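Q: How do we represent a protein-ligand complex in a form that can be generated token by token?
A: Start from the inputs.
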Amino acid sequence: MLDTPANRPDLPPEIARRRTFAIISHPDAGKTTLTEKFLLFGGAIQMAGQVRAKGEARRTRSDFMQMEKDRGISVSASAMSFDYSDFRFNLVDTPGHSDFSEDTYRTLTAVDAAVMVIDGAKGVESQTRKLFEVCRLRDLPILTFCNKMDRESRDTFDIIDEIQENLAIDVTPASWPIGVGSEFLGCYDILRDRLELMDRKDRNKVAESIRIAGLEDPKLAEHVPPHLLDKLVEEVEMARELLPKLDPQSVLEGHMTPIWFGSAINSFGVKELMDGIATYGPVPQVQSAEPRQIAPEEKKVAGFVFKVQANMDPKHRDRVAFVRMASGHFERGMKLTHVRSKKPMTISNPVMFLASDRELAEEAWAGDIIGIPNHGQLRIGDTLTEGEALRVTGIPSFAPELLQSCRAGDPMKAKHLEKALMQFAEEGAAKVFKPSFGSGFIVGVVGPLQFEVLGSRIEMEYGLPVRFDSSQFTSARWVKGERQAVDKFVNANKQHIATDHDGDVVYLTRLQWDIDRVERDYPDVTLSATKEMM
Ligand code: GDP
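Then emit the structure tokens for the protein with guanosine-5'-diphosphate bound:
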């Protein structure tokens, strides 16, 4: 059954109308363009181009942002809310670059579905595949948008086959493209028997939609030239025979993805995709937590931090914790319990991100994302409740794949550097290890670009030039086991031991051989490549 508000009387209507999702794609496939069109049709912006223009004005503020611009990557993730017909969409932006996959992973723990954008000429690309795999770990429902159909693109069956085979998911066409490249006319809406015609002259205009009584309707011939019509009828008949039919339940379980064809830049196919998200996308889902799950319709408010962003406003050293509401109806000024510290927190100035402006969030429902400005109390993985000691689970921290030592250019500034590094560690931008020997820090990241970003941010935000040097270590593992066994291991391996920003013990490794040796010689301790954030 479809998750429409009418079909979910068990949920408060405000929750049933929420759709919280992220867009996953390979760089250049059209994620920014599609986001902009979503905001345009969601009434959050008046004119296409605004997102970028605003982004640019903001970016000029700093070198770091300059770097982001130069490289054409989006380093930070944020969330945007807008209404579309009866629905409230919360679109959570994911960083597109593979160097930031850990951040992306955590962002995907805060959404209920993903929209996968692929380029019609390129099909499934490397980054799409990686992000898809992350979605699959959680069986996230995925809706697919095949973009740039106004350009020469691949054969429709080829595209669908490639997704099916490469990603091992059933694909069902929601629309079917008519013509390719300069001959691209629009799509036949398979789900609603409509003809959607693209307007090439006005890029922000929504396509003309013509109701059609099936493929035999003579009206089709009035709009589609004979050679394209023959091909369309033949292909759609074949698709109906060979490809699986849309099964909403299978979509919700993440086993089937409906695919829409379109051209984001021409605003084409975007509304159909939005209707699809509303109709086939999931309502806010149950959240896994200890000692019990959290259901969205629970009266009491609960939420968890999936991202922390520091220094969003360089003038104020504030941090914003992005919180996904897991249950209840939040109102501004509420007092919530910060479960990790057991301390109460009055949430007096939460923000919601409407397009690229911040606004005070007077209220929020399960499914919404709010930003909570704070001075560092809130960390990734933290849970907020109305008192119950619940801890949201499933937000991992991964062992870094690259390590470098980090020193302040000015040795007198070591304390300063420690403060800066700890902050970035809490933000989740890097792993910071303090070795039990010598001075200095070891910084761990997933991709090399992160060192550069970190270096420029420390310099810019703390006025502290830093040096990264190669380290003899290549990876790190968290050490787990009985206290005594861990102590014995630590004492015998001091040259490899460090602590992370939470004070947890890690073992720094040079080669796989180090890990093998520990496993052989210390059967009582375990080396782990992940740690739950809490
Ligand atoms: P992102 O890297 O995934 O965010 O991609 P962008 O949205 O920045 O788009 C990458 C490039 O593709 C830009 O030059 C866009 O103008 C262009 N683009 C986006 N959508 C379309 C489309 O539907 N057709 C064509 N021809 N170009 C598009």
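Confidence is low (pLDDT under 50) at residues 49-77. The chain has three domains: 14-187+245-280, 289-392, 399-532.
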